[in-house]
Specification:
265 residues, mainly beta, hypothetical protein yedk fold, 8-stranded mixed beta sheet, 5-stranded antiparallel beta sheet, 3 helices
Length: 265
């Protein structure tokens, strides 16, 4: 699962790595959360000059996938992730998996490890050798009854690799530069044709660094969220809690991969 990430690359770095022209300036963002605008890269419709492949475009979309057939996004669960293993068959994602695969430029992401005493330790997970990594993503445009449009996206995930499985059992899908065009070319490559790319990244690709709990606040945008801290010791003793009094809770509607995700808007 990926519920928070950062993009610290410059425009020049993004343009060079992804082969796009970025029209709008963007500042470094240390704490990108669901429902915020994120930048994705997709294939365009026209061939690039001097090339037989489509031009690539960079576009801003809302992080939180809304299927085109949704009547009211306000009453639809927010889907920030999609399981790569089943996206091709899920009603919410299968059309986007066939026709609107995209890349999400990321400097690193955050994940929380559950400890034995109920606490959680936040980790900043980044490529071991630095730079920008591309996550596989799916894009969909939702059109309202009055004709207004909203471009949305979800990040694809895989099973965790051995190196990071102690933190979480899911990881974002990493697409390597040599596979960008194969992934983005939805006209030539169907979902079944890119199935071999849907695998956990190599064990030595990422490094996980325990960081300050400032990142726990989705509204905190300070540059010090990467402040390294001493890793908490996992308690091996069971935690005994008094039974909580029952309380009424609203029923949460679920669909596809929306478990444990943020509420809409």
């Amino acid at each position: 699962m990926c519920g928070r990430f950062a993009l610290l690359a410059t425009i020049d770095e993004v343009e060079a790595q992804f082969g796009v022209i970025v029209d709008e300036a963007f500042p470094p963002r240390y704490n990108i959360s669901p429902t915020q605008p994120i930048m994705i890269v997709m294939n365009g419709e026209t061939p690039a000059p001097g090339s037989n492949r489509p031009d690539r475009i960079a576009m801003l979309v809302r992080w939180g996938f809304v299927p085109s057939w949704t009547k009211d996004p306000l009453n639809f669960p927010l889907m920030i992730n999609a399981r790569s293993e089943t996206a091709h068959e899920k009603p919410s994602f299968r059309t986007a998996m066939e026709h609107r695969r995209s890349l999400l430029p990321v400097t690193g992401f955050y994940e929380w490890r559950k400890l034995g005493d109920g606490r959680k330790q936040a980790y900043w997970i980044r490529p071991r050798h630095g730079g920008t990594v591309a996550f596989g993503a799916l894009m969909e445009t939702w059109v309202s009854g009055d004709g207004s449009q909203m471009d949305t996206a979800a990040i694809l995930t895989t099973a965790s690799n051995h190196a990071l499985s102690h933190i979480h059992d899911r990881l974002p899908l990493v697409i390597h530069p040599e596979d960008y065009q194969e992934w983005l070319d939805c006209k030539r490559n169907r979902a079944k044709d890119v199935k071999h790319l849907l695998k956990p990244v190599q064990d030595d690709f990422f490094e996980a660094i325990p960081v300050s709990d400032k990142i726990n606040n989705a509204r905190y945008f300070g540059t010090d969220v990467h402040e390294v801290v001493e890793e908490l010791t996992v308690s091996q003793e069971p935690v005994v809690k008094k039974p909580a009094k029952p309380k009424k809770t609203a029923v949460k509607k679920k669909t596809d991969d929306n478990d444990d995700q943020f509420s809409m808007f």
